[in-house]
Design goal:
Elements (H helix, E strand, L loop, with lengths): L1 H10 L7 H16 L4 E4 L3 H13 L11 H10 L4 H7 L6 E3 L4 H10 L5 H9 L5 E5 L6 H13 L2 E6 L12 E4 L5 H23 L3
Helix pairs in contact: 1-9, 2-9, 3-9, 4-5, 7-8
Length: 211
């Protein structure tokens, strides 16, 4: 764990103040996965792109190979002799995660038919189960659709992590863990967000897929 955080501190010294919160976020996410839960991720604009990016790192190998367990390999070989080796060789270990920003048909229909600021909240209501985690990203901490998703998550028993800017807005009061990075403008905040979630993804990979 120290390696990823040391690398983060070397590249971004101004994130040293966030180290304890990053460790807490990692512990929350790791416990979520140990308990068989999944992670939901949401944000707007650049933070929507970050949501997709995070899920992409969790669902496949990030910095290290993630071979499937031998029991799965052997079952694939036994059940599908012609294809088992190919399947086993090309599957990778995954940490279950869903980006809430990518379901275009649902998002546009709900925004048009019901309420645009409730799109993420509805998905949390649909997907979320007690013990899951919601990672909510907002540079200002004031995005209404992100805040509503956090409120629903709290009621449903999800654990919540906020990734935001220094002020934190209303988001900081709705999260179990809030990582508030320095920066005054969205681009500066988003650059630091990328460094933080890359560190989190590296820590999780080291934890669940040790080399």
């Amino acid at each position: 764990m120290n390696s990823a955080l040391q690398t983060l501190a070397q590249k971004h010294p101004d994130l040293a103040a966030c180290a304890a919160d990053i460790q807490a976020a990692f512990a929350l996410l790791a416990d979520t996965y140990r308990q068989g839960g999944k992670v939901l991720v949401c944000g707007n604009g650049g933070s929507a792109a970050d949501s997709e990016h995070i899920v992409g790192e969790l669902l496949k190998g990030y910095l290290a190979p993630r071979p499937v367990p031998d029991s799965i390999r052997q079952q694939l070989l036994a059940d599908f002799p012609a294809h088992g080796a190919y399947l086993a060789d090309h599957l990778q270990g995954a940490l279950p995660a869903i980006s809430l920003v990518s379901q275009t048909s649902f998002l546009t229909a709900y925004a048009n038919d019901v309420a645009a600021d409730m799109v993420f909240a509805q998905q949390v209501f649909a997907y979320g189960r007690p013990g899951d985690a919601l990672l909510a990203i907002s540079t200002s901490g004031r995005a209404a659709n992100v805040l509503h998703a956090l409120r629903v998550a709290r009621v449903l028993g999800l654990r919540t992590i906020g990734l935001t800017g220094q002020e934190g807005g209303a988001l900081k009061d709705l999260c179990d863990v809030t990582i508030r990075v320095p920066g005054e403008r969205s681009p500066e905040i988003q650059e630091r967000h990328a460094a933080v979630y890359h560190a989190l993804c590296a820590l999780l990979e080291e934890e669940f897929f040790p080399r």
